[in-house]
Design a protein that fits this description.
This protein is α/β, with parallel strands linked by helices. Helix content is 35%, strand content 15%. It is elongated.
């Protein structure tokens, strides 16, 4: 998986060139390398995978270049290796042929993706070890999600001490657009990163990340994107919320430190995420004081469930002038987050800049009653999201005082 311009096509073409070059040494004369080249359309295979600037013809020296026969959709090397072009528009064309290898390009935009992939699996049956290479800018399509789900299961099987002993045959590599910056126009890089860095589209198209939303998430990424701003207007109040970790060290939860401001129209602005992991209490307390002073926060809000009282004591020991208000969680994460999600849906919360890790944690908050309210892998707690929710609740969702009743 990789971002735009990360070199995916070049990687695929070089892999096939390597296979063809070693064909005679690997297999007997009647078992030469036979490669399936599959793209979204036949035009994509021809214009990108074969004839493109990073395609198969371009990566070969002239003396080793294969013969391209468009009428037969066939590439033929001098040593007998062959490659055939196929399209995801016609999965049935893969019924019958058989191959030693396959290069599947941009599977994230394939039509009939699962059907095409399934038909290919039945045809990969030649040689001692048939292999396939799939290159793509990731999109949350059923095929890609299925492949990555299987990869996650493989990771679980090969985890721990058994990792060196089990070979599942599935390998995932990753490249970003910046990894290939030396071969891309500087103006292109500056333009796309200035406009899209940190956004959902940028993370998908530049970072090569698969951004898949869960159906039962309390939040939607479109809410972040729609209301995202470059900077906040003049604010009437700024709160810095802290979700302290129960322990310290590399394996401990992070210390969530998120700042939110309020304007005169009662709109909220997420202005900073200074969360840190692996810090000892004195270290993150000092960091909180520094951030509070830098942002000129009105006060710090700290959750007491995981040592909030200690937060107040630690901060007071560093700078007694920084006021701290303690809050206590008496409901589940999802229940606390529900009214905050409503404010997002109403367009009343704006992210000033990009906060990828914070936004991922918000997307992992579930409305399902069958979960603990949080569904992220390899992470115990949504530290950033918890801090954000406390800040917004403090600024916009504090219960109003009950008016006193006159006795008549």
């Amino acid at each position: 998986m990789g971002g735009r311009g990360a070199g995916k096509t070049r990687a695929g073409a070089e892999w096939v060139r390597m296979l063809a070059k070693t064909s005679a040494a690997k297999l007997s004369q009647d078992e030469q390398i036979k490669v399936a080249l599959i793209g979204q359309t036949y035009a994509d295979v021809r214009e990108v995978m074969i004839e493109g600037p990073s395609g198969l013809l371009a990566v070969h020296p002239p003396s080793q270049r294969p013969k391209w026969i468009p009428s037969r959709r066939l590439l033929q090397w001098q040593n007998g290796a062959t490659a055939y072009a196929f399209s995801s528009e016609d999965p049935e064309a893969l019924r019958g042929p058989q191959f030693t290898h396959a290069w599947c390009d941009e599977i994230g935009k394939w039509q009939n993706a699962i059907e095409t992939y399934d038909m290919l699996q039945f045809g990969l049956r030649l040689g001692e070890r048939p292999q396939q290479l799939l290159t793509t800018t990731p999109r949350p399509t059923p095929l890609l999600k299925m492949l990555l789900k299987n990869h996650s299961r493989h990771e679980a099987v090969t985890g721990g001490e058994e990792k060196a002993e089990v070979d599942t045959g599935f390998y995932l590599t990753h490249a970003t657009t910046k990894d290939n910056a030396a071969f891309l126009a500087p103006s292109f890089l500056q333009g796309v990163f200035n406009k899209y860095a940190g956004t959902r589209l940028g993370r998908q198209e530049l970072q090569g990340e698969l951004i898949a939303d869960s159906e039962d998430s309390l939040f939607q990424r479109v809410w972040f994107e729609k209301e995202r701003l470059a900077q906040a207007p003049e604010l009437v109040k700024v709160v810095l919320a802290v979700d302290p970790p129960a322990t310290s060290g590399k394996q401990a939860d992070a210390c969530g430190i998120v700042a939110v401001g309020l304007d005169e129209k009662s709109h909220l602005y997420v202005i900073a995420d200074h969360s840190r992991q692996g810090l000892r209490p004195a270290q993150w307390a000092s960091h909180v004081v520094h951030v509070a002073q830098h942002l000129q926060a009105d006060y710090v809000v700290a959750e007491t469930n995981q040592g909030g009282e200690m937060v107040a004591q630690m901060i007071a020991s560093i700078d007694p002038a920084v006021p701290v208000k303690s809050v206590h969680a008496s409901t589940s994460k999802s229940r606390r987050a529900e009214p905050v999600a409503l404010l997002y849906e109403q367009g009343k919360v704006h992210h000033t800049g990009s906060f990828p890790e914070l936004e991922d944690e918000l997307m992992s908050l579930s409305m399902s009653e069958n979960t603990s309210g949080y569904r992220a892998k390899n992470k115990k707690s949504p530290d950033r999201a918890d801090a954000l929710i406390w800040a917004i609740r403090e600024l916009a969702l504090k219960p109003k005082a009950t008016p006193k009743m006159r006795v008549l």
